[in-house]
Amino acid sequence: MIGLIDTHAHIDGDSFDEDRHDMIQRAFDNGLEAIIIPAIESKNYDKIIHLCDNYPQIYCGMGIHPHNVANATDLDIELVKQYADHKKVIAIGEIGLDYYYDFAPKEIQKEMFRKQLILAKQLDLPVIIHNRESDKDLLSILKEEQDGTLNGVLHCFSSDLDTLYQALDINMHISFTGNITYKKSTLSDIVKAVPLDRIMVETDSPFMTPVPHRGKRNEPSFVKYIAEKIAEIHDLQFEQVCTMTSNTAKKLFRLSMLIVLFSAITGFSQSIYAQISDDSTEYEEEIIPQNPYSRTFGIGIFVATNTAIEQLTFEQRTNSRSTRSYDGNAALGFSLGYTIIDPIMIEAGYLYTRNNKPIELGYSTLPNTYEIFNISMRAIANPRSKVAFFAIGGLSYISNTILGEIRNVIGFNAGAGFMVQIPTDYGIFVPTAEWRLDFEGKEFRTGKEDIDRKFKGWGPVTINSFYSLPKLTIFWYPKF
Predict the structure, then answer these.
(1) How far is Cα 92 from Cα 115, in angstroms, rounded to an integer?
(2) Using CA atoms, how far apart are residues 213 and 91, in angstroms rounded to an integer?
């Protein structure tokens, strides 16, 4: 088995007292690269540190589990901080919320959870998070505390897709355990939706024993069954999942150098780690992490208001300029989108506007019409988020008929907006709101006076135009 990392195993528990050494040896004989023990209460801190000191491939987190916070105080937080100074402590955890059991009042759970998140940020350590039937409050606290420095993992994930997407949006990783292997498991769609560079594997030993050992005590050597199930769901090779999940764990918990260092101390061959490093590079090139809002080809329809703004320059009057705008006219159009890479989309569109004002004012027997063809690039700031923001820019071909006279000109466009990404069984629907400006690329010399009576006698006028377009678009990206 290629070096898997069991990112969550309570091997300090009493159920391992009789055969702990043999159990650990089995794990590493089966190819595990590391095991992480999350602490849940202060009485076991010393025992966990002792294990870490005696086994170079074992690391730990320090924290207070929500089951054990009922009587916790700031002194307990300070104790976590003291133990977190140890060289083998690589996270704050297991911490979080649990509303299924009534071991501690919700308000106390939330208070202690927040305090430990703040501690993790102060110590620059990731967090290992427990969540049971507390999605709303847990996400709310994580969002409030996420200032760009909070990293972590939601372990033993079993919530819904909406919770998953919100967790991914705030930079959380997702870890799965033996429950994804159960016959009645409903988690396959959840597993499939997680980008591969955000997945980790765990046993949650001695609990959540995977098939085919269900009913027995769980242990870290069984973590391969979770990786096999993830490979099956994602239609990947087992070795690829091993490499990807281990690389993700190493990055989150900063294990790469620690593994090499502590292995060297105990005489492990450096060539083993060199081979793992080579394999990692190979598989990273083959596996592209999946975006939960992955899009390829899309088609959209939009409505807009098109406000024409003109700058008038009167050639026979020195420094005589004026600006005018027309009432916004309803505009309709369609767009085609193609995603090159997650943050970059190419968009081609067509817009049509009709202005009957010249007929009403008696200037013409024909309406003014505006047609804009554009091709633009959309740069998306956060393409993996449900609500994503973007900037847009590109070229426009503008064909207008003004007072019966046709004007064709190449120009450019720019704008900004946001979109809401809604996955469905039929593809992704993306309502989009944006404000775009289309600029004509050259001025238009009329060679005659402007039709506006207030400029009578001012002589020939030159017009520079641009168009202000607040747009609402609905894109559909079908599944292929």
Answers:
(1) 11
(2) 29
